[in-house]
Amino acid sequence: MSYTHSISNRMINLVDRTSIIPIIEIEDTRHAVPLAETLLNAGMSVVEVVLRTTNALEAIREIAQNTTCIVGAGSLVSVEDVIKAREAGASFGVSPGSTPALVDACMDLDFPYLPGAATASEMMTLAERGITMLKFFPAESSGGIPYLKAIMGPLPHLRFCPTGGVNESNFMDYLSLGNVACVGGSWIAPANSINNQDWEIIAHNVERSLINRDGA
Ligand code: 3PG
Predict the structure, then answer these.
(1) Which of 25, 48, 62, 140 is catalytic?
(2) pLDDT tens digits, residue range 177-197?
(3) Cβ of residue 186 lying under 6 Å from some atom of ligand 1
(4) For residue 50, how far is its CA from the centre of ligand 1 (angstroms)?
């Protein structure tokens, strides 16, 4: 009954490499490579840079060109954002919600896409287009874990990356759900730690979360 479009399938393959996607906001382009190297060395190879700063596209370009990190572009809200993110070297795009124009653009450009959805109708509309891997956003304020559990019955073919209020103390509860493929959040590399170049603190955040995940 459900089919998955290749841009969603490729997104599923990307998130299969990880279970936690650090969502990062970079003010200073010079922080991009050291931050990506810190995340990589500590064990996380997929990151999302949100287009919420003037230097975000340049930061994506730096990470894509100079590291082996798989870098995606987040907070895409227009077709122009999709085009620019792809040109900068982003391997995937993420948006807080979705519009038919954004879905069309990602399909036309064959760009792996993780659109946001917070209601059953939004999820079903995206599934009709073959988008079956979705960002559940904003997760905590949209019903969190009880919501994801409730839609597992009627929408069993969908997989989610909850973000928005996901943090060190609740991410394991999300990951334990059958319909959660990965989680995303800013707790790994908060903006103030990036601005202060607190690479050691960020590395410890990664290590603690991975230890938690692996039950070590
Ligand atoms: C997002 O873009 O998904 C969120 O801003 C991340 O939310 P968080 O800061 O609550 O992790």
Answers:
(1) 48
(2) 999 999 999 999 999 999 999
(3) yes
(4) 9
